[in-house]
Amino acid sequence: MTSFGKFLELSIGMRYTRAKKDNRMVSFISLASITGIALGIIVLIVVLSVMNGFEQAMRDRILSMIPHLTISAEGNKLDNWQREKSNIEIFPKIDAVAPYIHKQLMLSKGDVARGVSLYGIKPELEKQVSYVAENILNGGGFADLKAGEQGIILGNTLAKDLGVDVGDKLVALSPISSGEPGQQSLPELKQFTVVGLFKVDMQQYDASYAYANIEDIARMFEMGSSVTGLRVKLSDPYQSRDIAYFIYDNSDRNYQISDWTQEYVNEFTAIKMQKTMLFLILVMIVLVAVFNLLSTLSMIVHDKQADIAILRTLGLTPRRVMLVFMVQGTIIGLVGTLIGTGLGILLAVNVENIVPLIEQVTSHHFIDPKIYGISEVVASINLGDVAMISGTALVLSIFATLRPAWKASKVQPAEALRYE
């Protein structure tokens, strides 16, 4: 067989995808099929990349605010934290340990009051377990939280809600037990001076977190040398569950240990479910394009019956006729997949620039931080997702060619040429 004969099916299949002067409709339908497959892949890649980016942004912001592990004792009161800190630091994969006191209270300025999560911290140690110090907007940061000066650092949104800025004073209100049985708790009032504002671009923290020196908070709540617990930073936060079990099993103290995944398991489970559902829904777009390809090939087979008959009379076997139309459908699917994958990646890479432009033109903000927790759209391209999307689209395109190609192989030359 000649070299041309070896590639005859490929040559004819490629020729059928191009327009002829007497029949441009078939080529237009082929272009529509390519466009449909490409659009489906573009939407899938962009949407899943945005979902990946959203998940990664949430995880990064959460891990910048909360400890990888939290270690406390019964009753959320840990005595002699220096000794306990030394005991924890000997375990492997522990990067840093810092004490903290956590209290829920009210901060007020004039007639405005907000509930906050107040953390008493050791500034020099807290920098080692938290990234808040790297996200200070105004003020000197943790260095200004000096013992005895009643300084406080607020989230940027919380400061706006209270109407305060660096240098302003506000009042902390917290119930303190009177110590008498049957009597209600009495409010404890303490004045603090705002020494800094932070912004991690996550509404949950920017609107409700505050930091003060651990000694000031200990005096306010009469805790002496006790703390709520220890915040632990790990070398690999994604091994937090295993490390927590290891510490619990190998420690002679009855610690209460929680890791960051326990607190946010519902949020990340919901994101994973949303990604799965979005993928299934968006795959339907690709399926519609594939059905369009099937219809296109069926029309081409009907249109090319005379050509098929001539090829058969020239000695082309039914199997090779089938390959001709499989090649044509595969080329359409391949071109659509390559265009869709390329444009999808290009759009996903630039989505952080495209979305603000669209928001500016439409005067509509797509991401409400009060709902989604973050204020900007970010995308993270997962090459595994891209490969799965592209591969699925191409395989579906190839399967869509089977029935029309099989019908083409069954065309009888005599019947097809009878009315030509």
Please sum up the structure shown:
The protein is α+β, with helices and mostly antiparallel strands and 420 residues long. The chain has helices at 3-6, 8-16, 25-65, 81-89, 123-129, 156-162, 203-206, 214-220, 240-250, 260-263, 265-303, 305-313, 318-349, 351-362, 369-372, 383-400, 402-409, 413-417; strands at 69-72, 94-109, 112-121, 136-139, 151-155, 169-176, 186-198, 209-213, 229-234, 256-259.
Low-confidence residue ranges: none
Strand order of the largest sheet: 2-3-8-5-7-6
Mean pLDDT: 80
Taken together, the total number of domains comes to: 2
Q: Distance between termini?
A: 31 Å
Topology pattern, helix = H, strand = E: HHHEHEEHEEHEEHEHEHEHHHHHHHHH
Helix amount:
40-55%
Which band does the percent of strand residues land in?
15-25%
General shape? elongated
**Which secondary-structure class do the elements indicate?**
alpha+beta
Output the number of helix runs: 18
- Determine Rg (CA atoms, Å): 33 Å
Number of strands: 10
Q: Sketch the major β-sheet.
A: 6 strands, mixed, barrel
